[in-house]
Amino acid sequence: MxxxxxxxxxxxxxxxxxxxxxxxxxxxxxxLNSSPQLRKLNRIKTITGTLAIEGNTLSLEQxxxxxxxxxxxxxxxxxxxxxxxxxxxxxxxxxxxxxxxxLLDAHNLIMGxxxxxxxxxxxxxxxxxxxxxxxxxxxxxxxxxxxIKDLLEWVDQTDHHPxxxxxxxxxxxxxxxxxxxxxxRMGRLWQTLILGNWNEVFYSLPLESVVKEKxxxxxxxxxxxxxxxESTVFIEFMLESIEEVLHNxxxxxxxxxxxxxxxxxxxxxxxxxxxxxxMSRVEIMKELGLSHRETFRENYLLPAIGAELVVMKYPESxxxxxxxxxxx
Length: 328
Prior knowledge:
Blueprint: H1 11-26, H2 29-34, H3 36-53, H4 60-67, H5 76-91, H6 100-111, E1 127-130, E2 133-137, H7 144-157, H8 162-176, H9 183-198, H10 207-213, H11 215-228, H12 232-251, H13 265-272, H14 281-288, H15 293-306, E3 310-312, E4 325-327
Antiparallel strand pairs: 1-2, 3-4
């Protein structure tokens, strides 16, 4: 093993790994993995989150419609990004995270409908720009293959904990920036693969969605790691995000004893006030006694739509002001 990425194991990282281990022992994995509706909802959150970080504006409802094979109104590129991400995440458990060929195959799935050179390392120079400022210049193109090979060899042979290894890989991959486009979503995809290979529960958790919610901190961690020329701060950030997604999963009605026949109490309450007549969002929220739109959408509406218990009147245009819903 020739290359050893620079980072330090801080007391904070040790404590984070300990906390994550305790949280994982508390997760009801059987409920999480046995519910098709929950897996689907988490996959929707994962895809929406990882693409939103890159500027994709499609909503959870629109991504849901695409996954269901329905037509939506949206830009051709953004729809293609969703389709590519669906393909890659569907195939993710089959990949060998130490293989360059399979890394390239995943990039081809994600970016195949967008880039002519998808599935191939870049041949030119690239930099990351923030506004008018160039914040990162990637290594020369003729070094990319060697750098990725060394990184994957380290991932394969290191004795460090997979939580650390996956985070180090994520940072180092973005530093190398091996593709002309799609590096961010590939780094997040491959970290999930490394984590899922360690414990398959990570294939069912929407880590990318949590990272999207902490996007400013995500970029800040990258910048600080670049300045210090080692990935310690980025490891701490990703472990914090992993802790958060595990906390969310444990506290969610979806993975506790509140789940009965894969339908949450929130969804049951929603269904109890609906019938076969179309209702607007405002009408439904009034009946439920809810005032917070995001709570209604995340906890009631989207799980019900994902479970195919509620349908939209205009699925091709989820954000339509005329949108209405009814119970199947």
